[in-house]
Amino acid sequence: MSQVTGSEGFESDDRPGRIERLGELLREVRRRLEDYQELADPTPAQRDAWDADLYFYDDALVSVADLLDIDVPPAWRDDLTPEGRTEIEAAVTAAGLDLSTVPPD
């Protein structure tokens, strides 16, 4: 059973625009995270950049989940596990926001 469910949520006049802007940022940061994973021997600066990008990605992912009325367990707001990240990404995608880093044909 999924821990991520729909709920009543925050209202905004520009919610669709905010969701799309966050989606663009998430795709951009996700591409960078994927690039870091391809590095054979990352430098300390590259590891620090990866950590910062992952922190930003998780925060933005939770923010877009909130805008899409997806319930995020409180523990995941402070410490998002890889499994939690995958579950939220799936819920966000199911809600209609494509997080794919591969451009459509």
Description:
The protein is mainly α. The chain has one domain (13-94). It is built from 4 helices and 2 strands; from the N terminus they run βααβαα. The chain has helices at 15-37, 44-67, 74-78, 82-94; strands at 5-6, 70-71. The chain has a two-stranded antiparallel sheet. Helix 1 (15-37) runs antiparallel to helix 2 (44-67). The longest helix is centred in the middle third of the chain and has 24 residues, at 44-67. The protein is globular and about 45 Å long. It starts with a strand and ends in an 11-residue tail after the last helix. The model is unreliable at 1-10 (pLDDT under 50).
Strand and helix layout:
Blueprint: E1 5-6, H1 15-37, H2 44-67, E2 70-71, H3 74-78, H4 82-94
Antiparallel strand pairs: 1-2
Helix pairs in contact: 1-2, 2-4
Brief summary of the model shown:
The protein has 4 helices and 2 strands.
Mean pLDDT: 87
- Quickly count the helices: 4
Structural class by helix and strand composition: mainly alpha
> Spans with pLDDT under 50 lasting ≥5 residues?
1-10
Strands, count? 2
The rough form would be described as globular
Query: Quaternary status of these chains?
Result: single chain
Strand content: under 5%
SSE sequence, one letter per element:
EHHEHH
Distance between the termini: 34 Å
**Largest beta sheet: strand ordering:** 1-2
Percent range of helical residues: 55-70%
The value of Rg in angstroms is 14 Å
For the sheet with most strands, the description reads: 2 strands, antiparallel
